[in-house]
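Sat 14:20. Reprocessing the chain from the morning session after the first attempt stalled halfway. Input below, unchanged.
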Amino acid sequence: MSARKVVLVVADHARDAAECRQFLAMLGLALPTPKRKPGRPPVDHGHGDHRTYQKGCRCDDCREALRQYHAELRAKWRQDPSSADRAGHGKSTTYRNHACRCTKCTEANRVATNEYRARRRQRAALAETGGAS
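Finished this time. Tokens:
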């Protein structure tokens, strides 16, 4: 049995980390060092960057940075006609994000818009009646 398998068996049967370390010391094994992932080390981009928003920050600066990033991305997609082909036709997102106005995308957007409006009307009706059906 390999040392790695022994460590896994011990870790599976130990009640906590201290007991696991104790068992491994009795067996003369050390805890394996975690493998470092290849690539660049993590970078802190600071507030006001879309990547910081994606890491979980929800401050106003990071929200605005993400909004601007997506606006620039959509503008880039709209400049490239082949981006709609890569995104796939027949979806409302292709209509909105890639400015594709083919028949399939236009119809998909019409259906999605009608469904959205129906949900809004239904929520408004529920709000008027106080949530009672």
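The first helix runs from residue 3 to 13.
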